[in-house]
Amino acid sequence: MHNSSNIRLAISDYLINIIKENPSIPTYLLKKDEQNGFSLIYVNDAASFIFQPVEQSLLEDVLNQILALLVSNQRYEFHQNISFTIQNKLYIYDVAIILLEDGIETIYGVTMYDRTNDEKEKNVLKGYKDKYLSLFNNNLDPIISICENGNILDINIMTSKMLGYDPKVLLGQPIEQLIEENSMRNFQLMMKQTLSGYATEMQTCLILHVKGHYLPMYLKAMPLETNSNVSGLHLVLRDIAEVSDDQEQLYYLAYHDHLTGLWNRRALKEHLRDTLMNAVQDSEISIVRIDLDRFKLINESLGYNYGDELLKKIADRLGLYIDKSNNLYRQSGDEFVFIINGKSRDETSEFAENILIELSKPLYLDHQEYFVTASIGISMFPYDGKKMDELLIKADQALFVAKDRGRAHYRYYQEHMNLAFPNDALMESHLRRAIEKEEFSIHYQPQVNLVTGEINSFEALLRWNNRKFGYVSPMNFIPIAEESGMIMQIGDWVLEEVCKQLKYWQEKGYRPVRIAVNISPKQFIQDNFARKIHGKIQKYEISPSSLEVEITESAMTDMQDTFTTLKELKDIGVIISIDDFGTGYSSLSYLKKYPIDIIKIDQSFIKDMELDDKNAAIATTIIQLAHSLGMEVIAEGVEKDRQVEILKSANCQKAQGYLFSKPVPIERINESYMQHENP
Ligand code: C2E
Ligand code: MG
Ligand code: MG
User: Does the CA dihedral 313-143-200-149 come out positive or negative?
Assistant: First the structure.
């Protein structure tokens, strides 16, 4: 009976081990019989104790479960959970089954480890986890969980939606990647505070969208606790525009431009001050000031609502260029500023070029195509200065010069620009005294007949030579004169001077010539404008047709008033021209209703017309249409022979531009064009 003694040895080893381990562990021995049935050959006290309060049938039920396990598992050793209820109470046991001998008799040792409480805990935890997960996943606010060293543990669905990331891309990545540089300091502070166990918040944090622009967000940080240790934090993000708390709103409004959502001038100053303060030895910081060219015209001719819509679109475009190294601000009306940190001059130039290209792409409003260009002025820390105001002013001076020298390009600040006015307010106060201090003069630019080469008309262009700041471009001071209303007096002064000049020539007996005077929209819409002109003509006894008034399309917003004034002027006998034609969004067919004599094609269409077929085609079309409506055409800004050829072949009568002559002082006009005529 070798076998039976072997079995006994195995059984006693097994039981001794179990008892050593814990005598209270329920243990059974089961013997398999020939018919594949099992009989119970041993039950310890602990096992019989489990089932003590219940009837025999339940014990059988449990045993049957165990037997079923044995039948289905043809293995020597295995574990499996079983569960049963006794008097409404759920019990869970981990059943370990061991084959003790596989000789003639087959005995299984069965031990049951009570897992009821463990399993319950697990279930409770799982319940919590499910609840937490549904709170996390289905939350309407974006939530990002990060561990204490700042790596992303999880993001919820809203985060993916709002920021556009595939969760896979972000998991395990440092959160820093998503935080804009200027927000970083406060972010780290908030993280520190939260890891110490307190929920904190951050009013505005710029978070990187997958497309590369930043979204201003309100952040709430809550400690992420596991086993009562803070092991990370949850960040709840909220679109700042939706944050309703007054305090947050006020903060937001204080630092943001409400039209475009960009940072405002106040934020610009604070951020720039911070950036400069933190600048280290070899930091390079660029201030890039962007001003839209002739935006006033858009506002005046399309109305402020349209102007605003365009500004928003432009802000969106510029917004594409925000990245970790820079920030975008709306400085005022149509002026935007980038502060770029850590980019070289070459990189900044490339940046400025890209901005110019971006802005020159057509914009669409109500299916209508608009074109906008911008001028850019740049100053750089530490080369142009170390103080905030100084750098801002110098970028502005560079912008002044860019505007003055033909717009639509960028310029870096250079020492000699220093003479320009540091700010508009100071310019305005000097402008107020310009007439009495005799700082104004008029230059005249000849208009050349392209067929005959004759010159018998000139455009009067105002010049201001300020005692302190030197020569100031009309492109800079005319807008200020217009805003402050001083343009009325200044315009009067120009008209007076021009009429005096015509009178002088007339008295000298020179050949009859005509002078064109630029009229600001404000002057034109005065009730008594035509009467004023008439008054001057009578005062100096000049021929009405020797005076030409240049009006821009933006002056002609009210059709009836425009018509009335133009009719009065026509009756007086002065010549009427439309200046900068093509930039004011009115059409020729609209203009044909008015008694207009001359169309002046804006320089922007002439510039590069020899290279750009589109410009040439626009200019040619304007010329043909103007002719068909009985108007004369003058091309402005002609600088190249090739442009003259194109204009000639399109039958353009007249041109003015540097190719023939710059605007020059009256003495030069007298010498070159008047002396030898009609003695
Ligand atoms: P505008 O009436 O369109 O005058 C033409 C501008 O083009 C002038 O600039 C002239 O110097 C410049 N110009 C002429 N030929 C060329 C050329 O070949 N190439 C380039 N790049 N530019 C050329 P300026 O004198 O600086 O005047 C700028 C603007 O200031 C004028 O534009 C006009 O709108 C305004 N302005 C000038 N004088 C007066 C004035 O007495 N009253 C008013 N209300 N506005 C004035
Ligand atoms: Mg003009
Ligand atoms: Mg013009």
Answer: negative
Indicate which ligand has the atom closest to the C-alpha of 447: 1
Q: Where in the chain is the domain with CATH 3.20.20.450?
A: 428-671
The hierarchical CATH code for the domain 139-255 is 3.30.450.20
Q: Which atom of ligand 1 is nearest to the CA of 519?
A: 44
pLDDT tops 70 at residue 268: yes
**Using the 8-state DSSP alphabet, how is residue 674 labeled?**
I
* Separation of CA 655 and ligand 2 centre (Å): 12
Residue of minimum CA distance from atom 4 in ligand 1: 461
The whole-angstrom separation of Cα 369 and Cα 342 is 37
pLDDT band at residue 546, thresholds of 50, 70 and 90?
A: very high
Q: How far apart are CA 384 and CA 398, in angstroms?
A: 11
Ligand 1, atom 37, residue with closest C-alpha: 461
Collapse the DSSP code of 637 into the 3-class scheme (helix H, G, I; strand E, B; otherwise coil) and give the result: coil
- Going 586 to 592 to 593 to 598, the CA torsion angle's sign is positive
| DSSP secondary structure letters along 99-143 | EEEESSSEEEEEEEEE-HHHHHHHHHHHHHHHHHHHHHHT-SS-E
What single letter denotes the amino acid at residue 213?
A: H
CATH of domain 265-417: 3.30.70.270
Domain with CATH 3.30.450.20 in the chain: 4-116, 139-255
Which residue, among 101, 39, 20, 36, has the nearest Cα to 28 in the 3D structure? 39
Q: Which atom of ligand 1 is nearest to the CA of 445?
A: 14
Q: Relative to the alpha carbon of 664, which ligand is closest?
A: 1
Which ligand gives the minimal distance to the CA of 445?
1
Question: Which ligand 1 atom is nearest residue 659's CA?
Answer: 18
- b/e per residue 149-173 (b: at least 16 CB within 10 A): ebebbbbbebbbebbebeeeebeee
Distance in angstroms (rounded) separating the CA atoms of residues 555 and 525: 7
- C-alpha 263/C-alpha 44 separation (Å) is 78
Tens of pLDDT, residues 334-355: 999 999 989 999 999 999 999 9
| Ligand 1 cavity residues, CB under 6 Å | 406, 445, 461-462, 473-475, 478, 491, 494, 518, 520, 579-580, 603, 636-639, 656-658, 663
CA dist list (Å): 391 to 357, 377, 380 = 25, 11, 7
What DSSP element (H or E) covers 598? strand 598-601
Query: Is the pTM value of this prediction over 0.90?
Result: no
The closest residue, in CA terms, to atom 44 on ligand 1 is 520
Asked if residue 333 has pLDDT above 70, the reply is yes
Residue 513 is given by DSSP the state -
Q: Which CATH superfamily is domain 4-116 in?
A: PAS domain (3.30.450.20)
424: CB partners within 8 A, 6+ apart: 480
**Cα–Cα distance for residue pair 635/637, rounded to 1 Å:** 7
CA of 634 to the centre of ligand 3 (A): 10
Backbone CA torsion sign across 122, 124, 127, 133: negative
d(CA 285, CA 325): 10
Bigger pLDDT: 559 or 586? Answer: 559
Please count the other Cβ atoms lying within 10 Å of the Cβ belonging to residue 332.
13
Write out the CATH class of domain 428-671: alpha beta
Model confidence at 59: pLDDT above 80: no
